[in-house]
Amino acid sequence: MAEANGQASGARGWDDRWDERIAQALAFVSQRLTGGYEVDEFGFDQHLTDGLFLPALRQLYRTWFRVEVTGIDHLPAEGPALLVANHSGTIAMDAVMLGVAVHDEHPSRRYLRVLGADFVFRTPGLSEVVRKWGGTLACATDALRLLQAGHLVGVFPEGFKGVGKSYSERYKLQRFGRGGFVAAALRTGTPIIPVAIVGAEEIYPKLGDLWPIARLVGAPYFPITPTFPWLGPLGLIPLPSKWLIEFGQPIETGQCAEAADDPMVVFNLADQVKETIQQTLHALLERRPNAFSGS
After folding, report:
1. 175 is a domain residue
2. What is the Cα–Cα distance from 237 to 199, expressed in whole angstroms?
3. Most buried by CB count within 10 Å: which residue of 62, 147, 291, 293?
4. Is the CB of residue 291 less than 8 Å from the CB of residue 170?
5. What CA–CA distance (Å, rounded) separates 26 from 62?
6. How far apart are CA 199 and CA 186, in angstroms?
7. Same domain, residue pair 11 and 45
8. CATH number, residue 245
9. How many other CB atoms are there within 10 angstroms of residue 261's CB atom?
10. Which helix (H) or strand (E) holds 119?
């Protein structure tokens, strides 16, 4: 009898969860259809992010990549910070997973506004999705406006040199551009938080590059991986690597707006951030000997 009651209770619980999900889905669709949501000046759509993007991406984050996060307390509960991370993975999945980590792991449920390359915003369809997720063009003007408005801003200074590097160069940081992110932080007095991401290198191991096709379609590269293009669309499924993300100690910039125009100050601070991330990557790799089991 007790077992039967337990089974009935479990069935009701399952039905209740599905009823709740259906109700939430209907409420979401109704709000979209009636236009009862806001989009900010950069195109960020919080309603769509909360109702569609985050629930879908959480499945990758929690069950596929099994992301573990440390140092989340280094992010401020409010006000601006500039998150500077290593970039890798052939497809920029690391930027997306970092956004999920910032929102889901931080008690304040903050949103990360990622600065992206112009190629992303020249691509029809992708541009609109990235903007609704919270991304914007990696330029000084947008970075300054977001920081001055008190947002968390994410930047990947390696750009396509990092995300498109070959598997043989995994976890070796590439050149950090001209340090524009440092200048933006100095001008606004925003703390810089180094972020190290381990796991993205293994999702699409880049073994080669079909550069004639890349040139034809206007892409920075056209990768050859163990599964793509050999398996067709199935080759786009990322490998289930184990991810570790660590947020480092904030580097305070103080009130040094005039230093933003000093090339040596900018270079030295950018180099400090780069070295911090590189050392953290080495430490995380020691904690995760196996790329897929994490043990």
Report:
1. yes
2. 15
3. 147
4. no
5. 25
6. 31
7. no
8. 3.40.1130.10
9. 11
10. helix 118-122
Q: How many residues does the chain have?
A: 295
Residue 218 domain-assigned?
no
Give the 3-state secondary structure of residue 146.
helix
- Tokens 């989340």, residue? 72
Same domain, 157 and 70: yes
In a domain, 252, yes or no: yes
Report the C-alpha gap between 216 and 228 in whole angstroms.
18
CB of 148 closer than 8 Å to CB of 188:
yes
Question: Do 72 and 179 have their domain in common?
Answer: yes
Count how many domains the chain has.
2
Residue numbers of the domain that contains 250: 41-203+238-287
pLDDT along the chain (295 residues), means of 10: 54 67 75 81 94 95 97 97 96 96 97 92 90 93 95 95 93 88 92 97 95 88 92 94 98 80 89 97 95 87
Strands 68-70 and 244-247: parallel
How far from 88 is each of 12, 144, 146, 167, 227, CA to CA, in Å? 45, 25, 24, 9, 17
Torsion region of 247: left, alpha or beta (phi above 0 gives left; psi -120 to 50 gives alpha): beta
- In this prediction, residue 2 carries a pLDDT of 52
User: Which tokens belong to 180?
Assistant: 């524009």
In the block, tokens 């399952």 appear at 14
Other beta carbons less than 10 A from residue 224's beta carbon? 18
Tokens of 272: 């400090």
Q: Which tokens hold the place of 114?
A: 């990622």
Q: Under a CB-based contact definition with an 8 Å cutoff, are residues 185 and 178 in contact?
A: no
In the prediction, which pLDDT does 61 show? 98
Tell me, what's the pLDDT at 118?
A: 86
